[in-house]
Specification:
- This protein is mainly alpha-helical and about 550 residues long.
- Strands 3-4-5-6-7 form a 5-stranded mixed beta sheet, with helices on both faces. The chain has a two-stranded antiparallel sheet with strand order 1-2.
- It starts with 8 loop residues before the first helix and ends with a helix.
Length: about 550
Amino acid sequence: MENEKLKPMLFTVLKGYNGKQFAQDLVSGIIVAIIALPLSIALALASGVGPEEGLYTAIVAGFIISFLGGSRVQIAGPTAAFATIVAGIVATKGMEGLALATVFAGILLILMGVFKLGSLIKFIPYTITTGFTAGIAVTILIGQIKDFLGLTYPAGTATVETMDKIEAIGKNIGTLNYQALIVGVVCLVIQIVWPKISSKIPGSLIAVIVGIFMVKFLGLHVNTIGDLYVIKGQLPAFRLPAISYPLLKDVAGDGFTIAILAAIESLLSCVVADSMIDSKHRSNMELVAQGAGNIGSALFGGIPATGAIARTAANIKNGGRTPIAGMIHSICLVLVLVVLMPYAALIPMPTIAAILFMVAYNMCQWRTFVHLVKTAPKSDILVLVLTFVLTVVFDLVVAIEIGMVLACLLFMKRMSEESRVRGWKYFDPEDDPDGTDLKDIPKHVRVYEISGPMFFGDAEQIAEISIKDFTKALVIRMRGVPAIDATAMHSFEQLYDRCKKNGVQLVFSHVNEQPMNTMKKDGFVELVGSENFLPHIDEALKRAAEIQ
């Protein structure tokens, strides 16, 4: 994958493109646009911005990412993963701060693609992605309880952090609006039942229509989008965000978070899509496209975007097989924005909450979460649960930072437990393919065998190698050491100094490629003497026996 071409997939698939495939892409693009319409509006509102910003994102970012992307079928737009992050940025730094953070994230994504870092995303542990995905789902659900229940908060109530929202719900539960609850429950039930009736038309669209009719014709006193937001059914206009060093410094952390999350989610979506259509995406080109799409979205009034797994899967199931389908989906949303956007004012807020409840449920991966808790090693469970809790209680930035640090520490501990430095006592022919007889070791020779990678987590084991008064040669067998780091190299240097001080000659057996290159670069081979590095234990023992 590191050698893949930095070339948009669109230019590849157009070579054999025909009318039949266009017809399939057209139908799929229209259906995906219908699915994206209520989701884009709902996710925008969950992100603390107006409904049109969601459509701007799906239109601009969706088109650019499909045009430049490294996947045949990726559909991009606003996603639930960004909702809580965006809401926090908007609440503390405003739309200007969000736009600048998104542009910064876009630049980072492009650089990640250009420098071919797409494959590095795989080093983020599955437990961390599962933990923060489940955490985001819970924060989305908590954030929508207010509208689902029709609660009313006093002016100035703090609702930026998830824990603030929980506190506000508890204090104001007495303001529950039963009419709003009825609308929300009906719309939620529709989304649960409708897929059994039809898989072509999304249940969220049916829920929107039913919700509008309930409030409009039954005279229910329920807040709608129009009651809380000013609806603008106009095309997005170019807007360059204000750039200043203090503001850039303030949003740099947010931009980094957006970039990492966009990279993870988009490439995960690509992997899922590959398995569905037996294809192979270009990860680095996809990162470049994600970067360009996010910059475009920010410059035209949108919010952060990434590949959407559910919409991508819907595209595949409806026959979409080229980026043309994603581009058609964006064009259809332009028509919706111009023609139908004024009617979005009629959508009840409990309906939006019900749609986001389903989004949260579908993304939470609770079955995977439970399976990991039951079957994973304790260290992995700790990372999973901690990432989940930190995402809910604090935010995604803290969760990823602490989760990654803890995962790395636990990984190093696990690797350290696999590394051993053992002195020879006897030879077991069943455990060693190098020989069939017991080795004849002179009294003045001591042999130690090292196994496992030697890095700063366990390099101190080298210091535990002991020598006797009568020892003249120390053989270090390293056939089981795939790699060493600078700390381990320093420990070997200290061992050499100790041996030299006591008149003991070091002899190495079967040093693998990476350790040997490290030792040569360090000058250690020259220091010990190249004649004391032998390829086989028998030769090393013969060399040691000659030393008196």
